[in-house]
Design goal:
This protein is an alpha/beta fold. Helices cover 40% and strands 19% of the residues. Helix 4 packs parallel to helix 5, helix 7 runs parallel beside helix 8 and helix 9 packs across helix 10. The radius of gyration is 23 Å and the shape is globular. The protein binds NADP nicotinamide-adenine-dinucleotide phosphate. NADP nicotinamide-adenine-dinucleotide phosphate binds next to helix 7 and helix 8. This is NAD-dependent succinate-semialdehyde dehydrogenase.
């Protein structure tokens, strides 16, 4: 697909971006590898951390401009765009301040002698990222790798080239050396060739199962490590003893956040039968009355989907769910007129033989399930090919904690919707992927955890 900026609010094409050439790719690989081989990657970490601090300052200084660009390019609400800009600066600061501690040698008690683990960079990384958090996804892979000393080659989604370009510009402005970060407008085939290149040591990918599988296969074929952050079908569990006002507010927010195009937002609402009717009535009313308008307007609660393909695909998915027996309780259609807007939608009666039961709906579509007890909650939550995150609402924290431990996902949140912070690991199990980003775990994914041992007998 050609790299282009098309405003999802109006549907208007604003700008196209030419693809990089094979010569550009070679230059990027050469610069990255040369940097890795230079003293930069092995030198004391502090100069790299100072660049991350400066990057946070550059982001803060450009925050209004950055937020507007995201809204224009992929249609999220201006308030969400501001939050995204805020968190990328926080991630840069987090790794600037914590990486030295994370990468410090770790002593091991061993009968064989004095032993410790050192952390060394591995080399040049290939990363492939999606459009739904166009800066945040890049920062999740840039900051830890930069701190660790790994140069990165990035292929961003083709619908957010402006965000991709501006991120690269800011990394340079912050003082990162040539080769530390390369943004390439390239095809999937070229990504595959880059992964095969001897100068690349690993691949990190966030996106759909199809793309993740292609990248994982190519990395495995060349015996390179990969991490995958794929989709989810997260449960949002409301127990009979939940604070319903709070659960309702969180549920509507979480299902409509980024127009429902978030990997960890509430997708399957699992309601205890004692509160199911009350919750569904109130949830339906709240979903039916959200303000659907221009995402630049501060009062808007639901903006457009990211592209016409996304809106058309979602409409087909809903129709297919209904054809297989689901009940369309609310919405279900694209909104006529300019832009790629979609009605807030609720599906009930989704049975296990309905394809929708196992699918991720990447848009404002909630599925409702009613359960009788905690065991049924676990059976339903874990009857999923995905395993990304989930949320449980209950006033009984011990009961919620017991359920959280039994849910097969990379994260569970109690009495709040699933969210993100620099210090919290992010990632899934099952077909939601493998490996972790952010936190102390994320920075260890692509470092050599090297054992050194001095023999007792020496
Ligand atoms: P996508 O189609 O997989 O696109 C993601 C990235 O992969 C884009 O840069 C895309 O490039 C590229 N790509 C697509 N096919 C490829 C291939 N065969 N080889 C190499 N690169 C390829 O995903 P999406 O539909 O845009 O994103 C939504 C999905 O991402 C959802 O499933 C969502 O849950 C998931 N997601 C997961 C997380 C997480 O952290 N777990 C976070 C955000 C999103 P083009 O744009 O050029 O096609």
């Amino acid at each position: 697909m050609a790299y282009q900026t098309r405003n999802p609010t109006t549907g208007h094409l604003l700008r196209t971006y030419p693809n990089h050439t094979e010569a550009d790719i070679e230059a990027a690989l050469d610069a990255a590898h040369t940097l890795y081989k230079s003293p930069w990657s092995r030198a004391p970490i502090q100069p790299r951390l100072r660049v991350l601090e400066r990057l946070a300052e550059v982001i803060d200084a450009r925050k209004d401009e950055l937020a507007r660009i995201v809204v224009e390019e992929m249609g999220k609400l201006i308030s969400d765009a501001r939050d995204e800009v805020w968190i990328i600066a926080e991630i840069a600061r987090f790794y600037a301040r914590k990486s030295e501690e994370f990468l410090a040698p770790v002593k091991i008690d061993s009968a064989l002698g004095d032993a410790w683990i050192e952390h060394h960079p591995l080399g040049v990384m290939m990363v492939v990222e999606p459009w739904n958090f166009p800066y945040y996804q890049l920062m999740r892979v840039f900051a830890p790798n930069f701190a660790a000393g790994n140069p990165v080659i990035s292929k961003h989604a083709s619908i957010v080239p402006h965000c991709a370009s501006i991120f690269a510009e800011m990394v340079e402005e912050a003082g990162a050396p040539k080769g530390a970060w390369a943004n390439l407008f390239i095809t999937s085939g070229q990504v595959s060739d880059i992964i095969a290149d001897d100068r690349i040591v690993g691949a990190a990918m966030t996106g759909s199962e199809g793309a993740g599988t292609a990248i994982a296969i190519q990395a495995a074929k060349h015996l390179k490590k990969s991490t995958l952050e794929m989709g989810g079908n997260d449960v949002f569990v409301v127990l009979d003893d939940a604070d319903l006002d709070h659960a309702l507010e969180a549920g509507v927010f979480s299902r409509l956040h980024i127009s429902g195009q978030e990997c960890i937002c509430a997708k399957r609402f699992v309601l205890h039968e004692a509160i199911a009717k009350t919750f569904l009535d109130r949830f339906t009313k709240a979903m039916a009355t959200v303000t659907i308008e221009d995402p630049m307007d501060e009062a808007t609660e639901l903006g457009p989907l990211s592209s016409s393909e996304a809106a058309e695909g979602l409409a087909k998915q809903v129709q297919n769910a209904v054809e297989h027996g689901a009940t369309l309780h609310l919405g279900g259609r694209q909104i006529a007129g300019e832009g790629f807007f979609f009605e807030p939608t609720i599906l009930t009666n989704v049975t296990r033989d309905n394809p929708a039961y196992f699918e991720e709906f990447f848009g404002p579509v909630a599925q409702i399930y009613v359960v009788k007890n905690d065991d049924e909650i676990i059976d339903l939550a874990n009857d999923s090919r995905f395993g990304l995150a989930g949320a449980i609402f209950s006033k009984n924290i011990e009961r919620a904690k017991a359920l959280a431990s039994r849910i097969e996902t990379g994260a569970v949140w109690i009495n709040t919707f699933a969210s993100t912070a620099p210090e919290l690991p992010f990632g899934g199990v099952k077909r939601s992927g493998y490996g972790r980003e952010l936190s102390h775990l994320g920075i260890k994914e692509f470092v050599n955890q090297k054992l050194v041992l001095v023999s007792k007998t020496a």
